[in-house]
Every structure is written in C-alpha cells, then in structure tokens.
Design goal:
Elements lengths: L1 H4 L2 H32 L2 H22 L8 H24 L5 H14 L3 H12 L5 H30 L2 H19 L15 H14 L1 H20 L3 H8 L4 H24 L6 H21 L3 H29 L5 H13 L2 H14 L2 H20 L25
Helix pairs in contact: 2-3, 2-7, 2-8, 3-5, 3-15, 3-16, 4-5, 4-6, 4-8, 6-15, 7-12, 7-14, 9-10, 9-15, 10-15, 10-16, 10-17, 11-12, 12-14, 13-14, 13-17, 16-17
Length: 414
C-alpha cells in the first residue's frame, strides 16, 4: 500500500478515478430521476439506458483497436471533458426552462459515445504504470475509491434533489469530471510506449480477438458476463420505480439504496485487497455471481426497505469480488501491446447484453411487475453460473500465468 501511495503516477490516476466516479454516479442518478419525474414510465426508464448503451457498445467496437495506438492519457481526458460538456448543455436548458424529455435522451447518447473509451484506457494505463505483483492491490484501491465516491454520491444526490432540485447535482458532476481531466494531465503520456506499425481497424481488432484463442476461458467468461449483464441491464433502470412505487420510498431512500450497493463494493475491495490472490479463482468468481443471483430472489419479494438495503449491500460485495479478480486475470495475461484492444473486446462482450436487458426489462415490468421481473433475473443469474461451474473450460481459471504466444506466428494453437 505504501509503495503505491509513493507512486506519483498512481496517485494522480487514483484521484482522477475518484473524481470521475463521483461525476459518473451523479450523472446516472440525475438522468434517472429526471426521466422518471418527467415521464413516470418504466418503459422510458428502460429506453434511457438503451440510448446510453447502444452508442456505448458501438464505440467499444470501433475504438478498441485504436486504444493501443492513441495516447491513453489523452483518451481519458477527452472522455471526461466531453461528458462534462454534455451535462453543461443540460444545465443551460434547465436554467432557461427549455428542457424536454428528448433532450435527456440526447445527453444520454452523447455520454454513451464518450464514456466507453475511459474504462479500457484506464485499465491498460494501470498495467503500464504498476508491476504485475502490485496489480491486485492497485485495482483494489482504484475500485474501492471509485465505490466510495459511488457510496457518497447517491445519498448526497438524493439529499440535494429533495432539498434543491437536480441542478446542484449537475453542477457537482460537471466540476468532478472537469477536475478528473485536469488530474490526468499531470501524468506522463503513454504514447511513446504505443508506437508501432500502423494497421487497419480490422487487422487490429482481429488481433485482439485472436488473443482469446490462446485463453479461450476468457472468451467464455465474457459470454457468461453477457448473460449476467443482460439481467443487470434489465434490473438497473427498475431500481428507482422499485424503491418509489413498490417500497414507497423517496429520492433520499433511492439514493441510500444505491449507496448500499456501493458500500458493499467498498467492503469487497477491502476484503480482496487484504487477502492473497485466491488459489481457486473459479470458486471465488463463480461463487460470487451465484450468491448475487440468490440475493436477487430475496430482493424481488422483500416488503421491507431495510432488508432491501441489506440485500443491495450483499450484491455489491459479491459483484466487486468478481470484478477485481476478473480484471486482475486479464491484466496478468494480456501483453502490453494488446491491452487496449483486448480490454475493449472484453467490455464489448460483457456489455452486449445490457441494452437488450434494459429494453425488455422495462416492457416486462410494465406488463407483469417489478417483483416478477427480479425473480426471473435472479433465476437467470443463478442458472448461468451453475452451467458454467460444470463446464470444464472454467477449470482454466485456476491455471498459473503462462507466456502469451502470438497466434499470427503460431497458427497451430487452438
């Protein structure tokens, strides 16, 4: 821990991640509240997530191969400042009393175009500045700090919205994203490390995909996450109407519910950061996801708000245990010159199910109910992890780190 705090580059990245986490949390909270306040429609809640995720996935698809050519620091700065500019326009529309529902969808699309390049860039940049033996603790600190911001953000946002409306929340998120970009400016460029022969988008994307021929288990982890995130995509837009309609809560209670999830993630990062790397990674990763599915079933039918908070905490704790181990697995195995495109393919695989889940989840909740939706989603998560547990390919999660061999030079590798 002390060595990481003495690493100037890591500290600036850490602070930038904290500011970005707070801004992103406020952004999600404010947009969700504005959409539901203006429309009162569960379908609209699902649609706003679709309007964010579709451009998100499109950018993941086409930007991934170029992240290893571009300066990763500048990519992150562009992402932060572009999102700040989009919300600045939203603030101006509110100030002049010109805001309409379609403006919220336009901002969501703009954010969906700018945000997806930030995460693969920061994951690759972390692997640039930290030695492999420090990655697990470094990831734990970054994830934990981000979750602390997400822990404070929804509760604080709920208080601000209840007292003053959405404008203060929007001002804070604009400042947070702007400050994050300034902090990133303090770090050195990664461009010199990325100089290589210029290749077409297809060639670079294909090379990123070929990595999964060497580590096919990572491909199947991505496919598993596609199913899990289909469920998450369906559930996430419904949390606001679940708290306000099913449990008769307020903006503050919705914020506290979201914060409970983040608080669980903070607990998970502390736990992961203090323990050694697991010997049985398969048991830790798949077990965490299975428990998350079981908790979804509890959330579906609880009549008590306090119990929903406890369940949300548990879901956050087990979600982050999986995420940290999954990210570390990639960082330890992906060679430096492939990190940007491989991380992008990973995120593309994982996020592909979210817009479909968001669209179908809103429709399902309108036709049936939110508790029935959560029941179906919990069963889907639990069943997916059980199937993966008995699939022999997932035994390779426990393999020791191996040397990557370029598939283009060794076509016989399967």
């Amino acid at each position: 821990m002390k060595e990481l705090l003495l690493n100037r580059k890591f500290v600036f990245l850490w602070l930038a991640q904290a500011a970005s986490g707070l801004g992103s949390t406020f952004a999600t909270f404010a947009l969700s509240w504005l959409v539901y306040e203006m429309t009162g429609s569960k379908m609209a809640m699902g649609s706003i997530w679709v309007s964010f995720m579709l451009p998100n996935i499109l950018i993941q698809l086409f930007s991934g191969p170029y992240l290893d050519r571009w300066d990763r620091k500048k990519v992150m700065m562009f992402s932060e400042w572009s999102r700040a500019a989009a919300f600045l326009v939203l603030v101006m529309l509110i100030s002049f009393n010109q805001l309409e529902a379609w403006h919220l969808f336009a901002v969501s699309v703009a954010v969906g175009l700018a945000q997806p390049i930030f995460y693969p860039a920061i994951m690759a940049y972390v692997a640039d500045i930290l030695p492999k033996e420090k990655l697990l603790k470094g990831n734990s600190i970054l994830e934990g700090t981000g979750q602390v911001m997400m822990l404070l953000g929804p509760t604080f946002g709920g208080v601000l919205i209840a007292a003053f409306g959405t404008e203060p929340v929007l001002y804070i998120l604009i400042i947070s994203l702007g400050v994050s970009g300034v902090l990133l400016m303090m770090n050195p460029s990664s461009k010199k490390k990325q100089l290589r022969k210029r290749e077409s988008w297809f060639t670079q994307f294909k090379e990123g995909l070929q990595f999964y021929r060497v580590y096919p288990v990572l491909f199947w982890v991505g496919m598993m996450m596609m199913m899990i995130n289909f469920s998450s995509g369906a559930a996430q837009p419904m949390f606001l109407p679940f708290i306000t309609d099913e449990l008769h809560g307020t903006a503050f209670k919705y914020g506290l519910f979201t914060s409970a999830f983040s608080f669980g993630m903070v607990g998970g990062t502390i736990l992961t950061g203090t323990l050694k790397e697991p010997r049985n990674r398969k048991r830790v990763m798949l077990g965490s996801l299975f428990i998350s599915g079981v908790l979804f079933l509890g959330l579906a039918w609880t009549p008590f708000y306090w119990l929903a908070l406890v369940i949300s905490f548990g879901q956050g704790l087990f979600a982050i245990i999986f995420n940290i181990n999954n990210t570390t697995l990639y960082q330890q195995r992906v060679p430096e010159h492939l990190r940007g495109r491989v991380f992008s393919v990973r995120i593309l695989l994982a996020q592909a199910g979210i817009p479909f889940g968001a669209a179908l989840g809103g429709l399902f909740a309108e036709v049936f109910s939110i508790p029935i939706l959560f029941t179906v989603l919990g069963c889907l998560i639990a069943c997916t992890t059980i199937v993966c547990w008995f699939n022999p390919i997932f035994e390779r999660l426990n393999e020791k780190e191996t040397v990557y061999i370029d598939v283009k030079k060794s076509p016989h590798i399967e």
